[in-house]
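Supplementary Methods, section 5.1.

A reviewer requested that the exact input to the structure prediction be made available. We therefore reproduce it here, unchanged from the version used in the analyses.
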Amino acid sequence: MSTIVVLVKQVPDTNAKIAVQGDRVDLSSVKMEMSPYDGFAIETALRHKEATGGTVTALTVGAAGTEKILKDAKAMGVDNIVRVWDDAWGELDSNALQSVLKESIESLVQTQSTVKVRSRYRCRLYRTWPSRTSWMVQCFKRHRS
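The structure derived from this sequence is encoded token-by-token as follows.
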């Protein structure tokens, strides 16, 4: 059985008018939604789950405002939703974000199994079609040969 983790993020609504104030983008009045490409990744993961079994988990890193995209993912049919955030983080740079995602995914794989030996798992990271900007992570137990 595989565990598929789909990384989802919130982006400004594609029809929103974005204002720039000084040297920063002002997103306070912009409606945020799940990236459409992440929606495609969820659909791909759900099709894979139907074909081979397993579970699909939507994972996001962000403050409480990201709860809406997780609810949208749950409505699409994912089995589990996970939001990772610590108020002490403030803003994460890309390296810190990658570290948080790595630790979160490893933790998810370990908690969804009674065997907690890391070497028994293999994870694959896929870029999803059509944009190649969304990611899907599939982790499964290694079979002994």
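Residues 113-121 have pLDDT under 50 and may be disordered. These observations are discussed further in the main text.
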